[in-house]
Amino acid sequence: MLKRLSVVLLACLTLSACGGVDPNSPLGQRKTIFKQMLKTSEDLGGMLRGRLAFDGQRFADGAVKLDNLSREPWKHFAQVREEDDTSARADVWEKQARFQDLARQMEASTAELVAVTRGQPLKAADLAAPMDKVEAACKACHTEFRNH
């Protein structure tokens, strides 16, 4: 029984390693950061849309986290396109100026969101417009530079 269990466990571990992305590769780094950004953004949006209870301090902390994360993924886009299985279109590398412009817009929108959270007490209604800008910045880049 132990031998069978060991074989099954080894097979599962081997299969889980297949097709994975090296977490230390530029693609792996980007994916990790983008997933963290998505989770944080979903939590903030959830508080504003009533899916999660609104907590002003938690929202402000999340805005700071999102702002910090928004400055990270761009440095993991190499100057030359990798051969990895990426969701990024070739345009990322062919239209670097535009890509960098959208990255700066994302950073500006998250910085604006943080600035708004410094006013107390926080009200969800006051945070909707700046959060909409953050979401629009995400969408603009995805529309132009990501294979869906």
TrEMBL record:
One of its GO terms (biological process) is electron transport chain. Residues 1-19 form the signal peptide. Heme c binds at residues 138, 141-142. Keywords: Electron transport, Heme, Iron, Metal-binding, Signal, Transport. Transmembrane segments: none annotated. Pfam families: Cytochrom_C_2 (PF01322). It comes from the Bacteria. InterPro entries: Cyt_c/b562 (IPR010980), Cyt_c_II (IPR002321), Cyt_c_prime (IPR012127). One of its GO terms (molecular function) is iron ion binding. GO terms for cellular component: periplasmic space. Binds 1 heme group per subunit. This is Cytochrome c. It comes from Pseudomonas tructae. The lineage of its organism: Bacteria, Pseudomonadati, Pseudomonadota, Gammaproteobacteria, Pseudomonadales.
